[in-house]
Predict the 3D structure of the following.
Amino acid sequence: MVKSCQGMVVWLAAVGSVLSVQQAVPARAASPFVSDATPGQLPKTVAPLAYTIDLTPDLKRLSLRGHETVRIALAGPTDTLVLNQAGLTLASATVDGVAAHITQDEALQTATFQLPHPLTAGEHTLVVDYTGPIPQTPNGIYYNDYTDRAGQHRRMLVTQFEVADARRMFPGWDEPRSRRILP
């Protein structure tokens, strides 16, 4: 079971070696666009409207595979999308079915998607396939080993998304202006 908790760690107990989380969760922004004065490094002309993430962690290999669909709104035409990611390997990205060239900058913790033609203002669909590690450090999605009451060794998955660690589990707009309220 997955629960959303603001300011708290979300624990996911894993049974077996692979846990597949496949649940569409709409995310809504209070306002799709913000002023240029709003803090953050990402362009303010793109706003995520809803994420659907198919995440498959592999506890034996300590890795994850993700497929993400993000409905986005554009304030004006652009041929470039920039979002956050950290430590992920983005394999492919399309916008409205058109392949984008991917450039990743680990120092800035961003990914840039360059499209062959500008997108128009309005709603579009971004699809990203990616992989990433599941580390032991408490950032993004990570693992924690423990011993249960019966003395058995167990491993669980844990998430920590504050302050800017959601980008370690999925590529997205991981800045305070883009925080989402989950239903």
